[in-house]
Amino acid sequence: MGVESMGIESIIAMLFVGAIAGWLAGLIVKGYGFGLLGNIAIGIVGAVIAGFLFPRIGLNLDGGLFDAIVHSTIGAVILLVLIKLVKKV
Fold it and tell me: What does DSSP assign to residue 6?
């Protein structure tokens, strides 16, 4: 399913979840603030990471806005921690 088959509501929801998740991850991992567009990107990548990792460790996404924000935030935190580790090396 590509972006062209998504409704405008789905795209807005994805951007909203990405922005909130990226912002929360930036608060959790100190020193990382990327602005609105950066937070959206970090949050969306975090959702992809969570969508890839969680089923493999037995966690399922139930759906719903709150679950999407929580899972995307966890994925975004993982991404920011990895970036922090790579920058130290």
Answer: S
Residue 3 lies inside a defined structural domain of this protein: no
Torsion of CA 21, 31, 54, 13, to 10 degrees: 10
Instruction: Report the number of distinct structural domains present in the chain.
Output: 1
CB atoms within 10 A of CB 74: 21
Q: pLDDT tens digit string along 18-58?
A: 889 988 998 888 766 677 788 888 888 988 888 888 888 88
Tell me the whole-structure pTM to 2 decimals: 0.81
- Within 10 angstroms of residue 37's Cβ, the number of other Cβ atoms is 12
Does the residue 39 lie in any domain? yes
